[in-house]
Design a protein that fits this description.
The chain has about 425 residues and is mainly alpha-helical. It has 2 domains: about 15-185, SecY subunit domain (Preprotein translocase SecY subunit); about 200-385, SecY subunit domain (Preprotein translocase SecY subunit, Orthogonal Bundle), CATH 1.10.3370.10. Helices cover about 70% and strands about 5% of the residues. The chain has helices spanning about 1-10, 15-35, 45-50, 55-60, 65-70, 80-95, 95-100, 105-135, 145-170, 175-185, 190-200, 205-230, 265-280, 285-295, 300-320, 325-335, 345-370, 375-380, 390-415, and strands spanning about 230-235, 240, 245-250, 250-255, 335-340. α2 (about 15-35) packs across α10, α6 (about 80-95) crosses α8 and α7 crosses α8 (about 105-135). The longest helix is centred in the first third of the chain and has 29 residues, at about 105-135. The chain is globular and about 80 Å long. The N and C termini lie close together (about 10 Å). About 30% of the residues are buried. Keywords: Cell membrane, Membrane, Protein transport, Translocation, Transmembrane, Transmembrane helix, Transport. It is found in: Cell membrane; Membrane.
């Protein structure tokens, strides 16, 4: 009831009402675009490919059904996400980009511009690969057909990038995340209808459905718990006298989130593993490609182990990129703070690094378990073609929490009671 009251209050505030309706309007445009087909492609062939493997099923869930329809939004916003991740990684190793990141708003604008250019390049390359991989679905295979498909898919991704930026700037929440959220949520009714069809046909029994619901509820509870989990390091600030005023002297804490990297490592690891599978699909009939598809296809034991290890590795790497213990320690020291029992400076940085290493391990293992969950769900429930797995739930729950927090912040700024008590 508190959440409904908060939504009613948000709608009654003119600025928030405008932002909410603007966001909903752009999400509706996204859903309409998911049904505009790419010219020269037979969607029925693409639909058969989706039924043949979990890789394509997962991709279809992320794109909100646009991949199955092979619409102009078939690649979703994935190239933009990959470009953003690559740009963040390059910011650490390239001094020019690192300098731009520290220049404030103007520097961030330039980095955003470079990210857009990277999105166009990655989208075009991925679109060409997708056109070649799905050549059996083309009505008139040839250079011109490949070019039309590549340009259409690239234009769709660029338009989605613009939609996401507009939602972030003028709406509520992170636009890119909300587009993925809307795509995944839009597939829930179709997934539910499929489960009902299996139930009516006798393919599965009611116990399998109950087990699926129990697993989903448990996973959602776990995701919320881990996303909100923090390790709070106490920080004490000494008193400083500036003129006639006394500053500091208070105790506070440094919050370190258990899942600081969010869902980025999962997306990056899945994107990395999709590439060799796509290449193997192009070279079907080749000895090496057939060997790879036999032992390392999506859902195999070897693929699952590599996937989990990559997620753990990327979690540590991405956490190190976005959180520098040395910078944190220097900022604490700069403002007269210290961690009780720890000397300021490098010893503080080493202590923070040790704590981060331990809590990141828990977050990384959790992400890996969530990502490989669909394989175990299939074994436990025996429900075929269920792709709404742990990764999708992780994205949906994470985006819902972040969007709710943004609404909460807007309401608190206007002295209203928010969603969370």
């Amino acid at each position: 009831m508190a959440g409904l009251a908060g939504i009613k209050t948000a709608v009654n505030v003119e600025d928030l009402r405008t932002r909410l309706f603007y966001t909903i309007g752009l999400l509706l445009i996204f859903r309409l675009g998911a049904h505009i087909p790419v010219p020269g492609v037979n969607p029925a062939v693409v639909a058969k490919l989706i039924e043949s493997g979990a890789l394509f099923g997962f991709f279809d869930v992320i794109s909100g059904g646009a991949f199955k329809n092979f619409s102009v939004f078939a690649m979703s916003i994935t190239p933009y996400i990959n470009s953003s991740i690559i740009m963040q990684l390059l910011t650490v190793v390239i001094p020019y980009l690192e300098k731009l990141a520290k220049e404030g708003e103007e520097g961030r604008k330039k980095i955003t511009q470079y990210t857009r250019y990277g999105t166009v390049i990655l989208a075009f390359l991925q679109a060409i690969g997708m056109a070649l991989f799905l050549r059996s679905a083309l009505l008139h295979p040839g250079f011109f057909s490949y070019l039309v498909v590549a340009i259409s898919l690239t234009a769709g991704t660029v338009f989605l990038m613009w939609l996401g930026e507009q939602i972030t700037e003028k709406g509520i929440g992170n636009g890119i995340s909300l587009l993925i959220f809307a795509g995944i949520v839009s597939r829930i009714p179709a997934g539910g209808a499929r489960v009902l069809d299996y139930l009516q046909a006798g393919t599965i029994n009611i116990l399998s459905v109950v087990l699926l619901v129990v697993i989903a509820v448990a996973v959602i509870a776990g995701i919320v718990a881990v996303n909100e989990a923090q390790r709070r390091i106490p920080v004490q600030y000494t008193k400083r006298v500036v003129g006639r005023k006394v500053y500091g002297g208070q105790s506070t804490h440094l919050p370190l989130r258990v899942n600081m990297a969010g869902v980025i490592p999962v997306i990056f690891a899945s994107s990395l593993l999709m590439f060799p599978e796509q290449v193997a699909g192009w070279l079907k009939g080749n000895v090496v490609a057939d060997w790879y598809m036999r032992y390392f296809h999506w859902g195999s034991a070897a693929h699952t182990i590599i996937y989990a290890l990559l997620i753990i590795g990327f979690t540590y790497f991405y956490t190190a990129v976005i959180m520098n213990p040395l910078d944190v320690a220097e900022n604490i020291k700069k403002y007269g703070g210290f961690i009780p029992g720890i000397r300021p400076g490098r010893p503080t940085a080493e202590y923070i690094s040790r704590v981060m290493t331990r809590i990141t391990l828990a977050g990384a293992i959790f992400l890996a378990l969530i990502a490989i969950l669909p394989s175990f769900v299939l074994l436990a429930t025996r429900i075929p073609h269920i792709y709404f797995g742990g990764t999708a739930l992780l994205i949906v729950v994470g985006v819902a929490l972040e969007t709710m927090k943004q609404l909460e912040a807007h309401l608190l700024m206007r002295s209203y009671q928010g969603f969370i008590k």
